[in-house]
């Protein structure tokens, strides 16, 4: 697990990269990465207040590689740019610039598997594709869980809910 000075150095590196790429990241980003031991379903977060921005990552991400941590930090740093509090067109533009300049794969969402870390999220629902056998874990009740018949797998197969918690 990386220590705090190492995490802070990775954040500093990502901020320098963004600025070198001409991305207008905020000058009011706290230099310390906050590690959240309670986060189960998200890998990172950018918290904004009147004092500036605090970048937070999940403790689970700390078990990943420096490259995985940098990618999540870069995603969150982009949220400090003007007009980028969401994943809109401007945020996507900056994400693509970082991806091209530094080889990141920043996107709106990421999975623990894609970052090479263990997925410890609690699975309450498991969706199964009848054609290819793909399993799609879901942590929360969603339209997919409630009405799988409305959706199709990437392969075109029908989906069904395998597990549901007791009502």
How would you sum up this structure, described in words?
By secondary structure, the chain is α+β, with helices and mostly antiparallel strands. The chain folds into two domains: 4-115, 2-Layer Sandwich (Zincin-like); 125-163, no CATH class. It has five helices and six strands, in the order αβββαααββαβ. The chain has helices spanning 4-20, 66-78, 89-102, 112-115, 143-146; strands at 34-36, 44-49, 52-58, 125-129, 135-138, 159-163. A three-stranded mixed beta sheet has the order 1-3-2, with helices on one face. Strands 5-4-6 form a three-stranded antiparallel beta sheet, with no helix packed on it. A hairpin with a 5-residue loop joins strand 4 and strand 5 (135-138). Helix 1 (4-20) crosses helix 2. The longest helix has 17 residues, at 4-20. It is elongated and about 50 Å long. It starts with a helix and ends with a strand. 23% of the residues are buried.
Defining key terms:
167 residues; 3-stranded antiparallel beta sheet; alpha+beta; 3-stranded mixed beta sheet; elongated; 5 helices; Zincin-like
Please give the number of β-strands: 6
Known CATH architecture of the largest domain: 2-Layer Sandwich
Strand content: 15-25%
Q: Compute the average pLDDT.
A: 92
Instruction: Spell out the CATH superfamily of the largest domain.
Output: Metalloproteases ("zincins"), catalytic domain
CATH class (first level) name of the largest domain: Alpha Beta
Chart the SSEs and their pairings.
Elements: H1 4-20, E1 34-36, E2 44-49, E3 52-58, H2 66-78, H3 89-102, H4 112-115, E4 125-129, E5 135-138, H5 143-146, E6 159-163
Parallel strand pairs: 1-3
Antiparallel strand pairs: 2-3, 4-5, 4-6
Helix pairs in contact: 1-2
